[in-house]
Amino acid sequence: MGNKLKLSIFGESHGPAIGITIDGLPSGVAINMDKVLEEMDRRKPGKSLLSTTRKESDTPEIISGFFNGHTTGAPLTAIIRNNDQRSKVYEDIKNVMRPGHADYPAFVKYGGFHDYRGGGHFSGRITAPLVFAGAVAKQILAEREIFVGAHVKSISHIEDKGFQDVKVNQALFDELKKQEIPLIDGGKRTEIEEVILQARKDMDSVGGTIECTVIGIPAGIGDPFFNSVESVLAHLIFSVPAVKGIEFGKGFEMTKLRGSETNDAYYYEGDKVKTHTNNNGGITGGITNGMPVLFTVAIKPTSSIAKKQQTINIAEHKNTELIVKGRHDPCIVPRAVPVIEAVTALGILDLLFIS
Q1: By C-alpha distance, which of 222, 195, 220 is closest to 206?
Q2: Which residues are paired to 312 by β-bridges?
Q3: pTM of this prediction exceeds 0.85
């Protein structure tokens, strides 16, 4: 994936390791590994009952493209070793297709030769290397005073405040990073935690939305049509497992309004051009207009649930029932926040490199 900045991911959920190669980074870029580990820790499983109990250190090992604290200009490759696999659960149900998962289409596409343990290469586990790459991209963007931040906009029916309701800056992003469920309105935390824990108790799961923004990005980045900012970001974001939708700015709400209500009127603030509103999410004609890039992503409920479900056994060619065992998130949304930030940073950096 990518134009000037090219990404390639590899590995499976229950294999020995997962990893990523980033090609196109310039030489001489300093990488602060402490900041990288902070990002990895945000996505890391096993921190509370709000997520899976699988324990992984998620410590990246850089094996090429990095020397004496700086990039060398060669492809930057990092691996993350898997340490807490319990594959027997998946051996027992290898012929039973889990609803909501890629089991059946993967079986058809790969003729049954794919690694089905824990979802294999389809697993959300593979987003850990993306967070590593995004952490590197964020550091390069920060040198240009461009910052990416996101928060949980909603869980089930419970809504947080939006970025347009508050002053957005790096300090807010730093505060959100400290929270297991990153919320602008901390008063919603208990209610959201209760909804997630109730879903776990009910042997079920819940979904939600993530709002992401990019501040400090100048006007004029992107291209019309096929390399628009929206298309580049949407391609990367839909590559993240569990993402089922995206809208920029007011998105679908704009269909209910008139042009006079959705157009973003320009004005000068000194020598800077700004708009009174940001209904278009900082992008017009596929190109940034100088306002913050702003979008919301829909994350579906976790597919692995302990409730009994109807499915099929492909070896016996018959209908059957399934109760998924193992360790799974009752809500994947909070752990997906750093992933959405990561792929956004990678997309924006690629767009900057080719602009």
Answers
A1: 195
A2: 319
A3: yes
